Amino acid sequence: MSPRPLKLAATPAGEHLRQQLHALKLTRIEPIVDSIAQECARERVGYLDFLERLLEIELLERRERKVDMLRHFAGFPYKKSLEQFDYDFQPTVDRRMVRDLSKLRFLDHGENVLIVGPPGTGKTMLSVGLGLKVAESGRRVLFTTADDLVQALTRAFQENRLEEKLKSYISPTLLVIDEVGYLPLDKLQSNLLFQVISRRYEKGSIVMTSNKGFSEWGEVFAGDPVIASALLDRLLHHSHVINIRGESYRLKEKREAGLFSHSLPLTHGGDRPE
Ligand code: ADP
Ligand code: MG
Question: What does the pLDDT look like over 232-261, one tens digit per residue?
């Protein structure tokens, strides 16, 4: 139903009603109460139906605003949906699996989603798409790169407020950690990432993307190979793995724009997000 202009009668009763709606923070009802009242009188519907129509509009608009806020504060690098993903271009991505994940049952048991593949193959896009579904379901999602996460935690550690910062990564229903493996992590950084993962273990889901296969994770956590395996152990225990083997979508777009005449060999690393 589209919002209609404010038309509460300029009488003491109208003014009183307006104040009551404000006091109850029923702000979406105020501009439409008069026209809904007229509509209900015309259709001869009863008082309960009138009340139901009003509350429905209030709830619907509140929900929309909440989803907008959740999307906004998630920190996505861009907002593309799973529905925009071209599976024909990337056939190693199982569309049935992604559709199943998009129903978000994995959140109920704190299961993780690990997306592995070379640069430009849609890892970030799939993680954003799943994150958007979480926001649309009214739950909190936080998107971060591994680099930003360890930087922020290192700063917090140095400033003696690690616990508080850790909570910000533990509390969202879903945490997306993008680009694990682009930069090697030292001992402190590995340890900080480990704390986030072990605290969320079996409680809160993580979607993690990496350009490195799991066998290469020892190199990523150069400061501590023991942590690398402890971390993988927790991540993989209850997890869905999307292993993308294919060409970069960015290169396809460039080729289509006539910048390359044929396929370029795929390279690992050095790739930055949009
Ligand atoms: P990466 O795997 O490096 O994280 P991205 O997910 O950021 O790659 O993808 C790079 C760009 O290509 C983004 O703009 C993304 O939306 C687009 N893209 C990648 N794969 C697909 C795909 N299969 N269908 C549609 N767009 C895609
Ligand atoms: Mg990416």
Answer: 999 999 999 999 999 999 888 877 777 665
